[in-house]
Specification:
- The structure is a homodimer of 175-residue chains.
- Helices cover 59% and strands 6% of the residues of chain A.
- The first copy, chain A, is mainly alpha-helical and 175 residues long.
- In chain A, strands 1-2 form a two-stranded antiparallel sheet.
- In chain A, a hairpin with a 7-residue loop joins β1 (110-114) and β2.
- Chain A is globular.
- The relative contact order of chain A is 0.10.
- The interface between A and B is large, with 88 and 87 residues.
- The first copy, chain A, binds a DNA duplex (30 and 30 nucleotides) through residues 2, 4-7, 54-55, 58, 64, 66, 82-84, 92-100, 103, 118-122.
DNA sequence: CAATAACGTTTCATACCTAAAATATCATGT
DNA sequence: ACATGATATTTTAGGTATGAAACGTTATTG
């Protein structure tokens, strides 16, 4: 936003192609279509949060969100996962996983062993160190997220979650 | 989704550090804190939309969201903007703008002229070609966004916008 | 059982991001 | 004038994303 994002603001919109300045200036809150305004807000919220989390992960743990996310996926899969599984879970391309995994393995946070059944695939698992380190990071990460979003009232939170869940379902169908 | 998502799914969480497996597996919808679940949904929605828009921009216009966003900011500033202004608007670092601007200038979509008042700064403006090209992209971009988000009912949309706006305000205060 | 299709992973070229250091210009106070 | 500091941009080094091509490993099937 990528997310991050970190990362961006999105665009306004034009209704027709008029004279000199072919596009209406369109401030974030004016006549633009509702959908566009939702998208802009959604993206800027996600970007801000992502940047904030990324910066703190770097400061406190000298790591990144990408690495944290990969560890998080392995943490909930004691049986391990293949590169492709992980790349699907993280919604990034297979190629992106390779370098990430190489470094995490070099840092001793994960193990990578050839699958006994299918020699094309690797099984990735958290190492003991990896599990410990992830535990520390996860606790702080949760505190940060709660601090960022927790300012919304519980009612606003559950409304927001509902709407985002609905949106996600529609997006899934689309794809 | 940055986020590009691009980009990503975020993490679960543990409540305390128990025996063997120090972390609860935590599926996306179970006992995790509301804030965490909101963040995960928010990020995955933003990532999906961002990837979708990026892919279509590449296919139809052979460009990217980053370039489109930069053009969009210039489109609403006929008086032009400095590199720093643009980097603030897009919420990316100054360094990221340099290469982007160089390519857009090489492609003839924007002009870059030294400011007459302050020779440290450049004024960036859309060229005629740039304005035309941006107009075409913007129209398609809007259609795509409407298609992606428009499946929500108008009521759900305006609720969602309200909540995101509230969240954004809180995030602004935080920073 | 060999050709071929499908799958899992890596490699490559390209793009974008950041933070920090380097450079260049302006603005001030003495 | 001049050192000092603030501002604007570029450069550098490092991390991560993509899509496409290449490869090795299975699976299928005529």
């Amino acid at each position: 936003m990528d997310a991050t994002v970190k990362r961006k603001l999105r665009s306004p919109k034009s209704a027709r192609p008029p004279p000199l300045q072919p596009l209406e200036p369109a401030h974030e809150s004016d006549g633009a279509h509702l959908e566009l305004r939702i998208w802009l807000r959604l993206l800027s919220c996600a970007t801000r949060i992502e940047k904030s989390l990324n910066a703190r992960l770097r400061k406190e743990f000298n790591t990144t969100l990408a690495r944290f996310d990969l560890l998080a996926q392995l943490a909930r899969k004691p049986e391990g996962a293949s590169m492709s599984e992980v790349s699907n879970l993280l919604m990034v391309s297979n190629g992106a996983i390779t370098a990430l995994v190489q470094k995490l393995e070099a840092d001793g946070l994960i193990h990578r062993e050839v699958d006994s059944e299918d020699r094309r695939t690797f099984r990735l698992r958290l190492s003991q160190d990896g599990a410990k380190e992830f535990g520390r990071m996860a606790r702080r990460h949760e505190e940060w997220v709660i601090a960022l979003i927790g300012e919304l009232s519980p009612v606003a939170q559950s409304d927001l979650l509902q709407h985002l869940t609905l949106l996600k379902r529609r997006l899934d169908k689309h794809a």
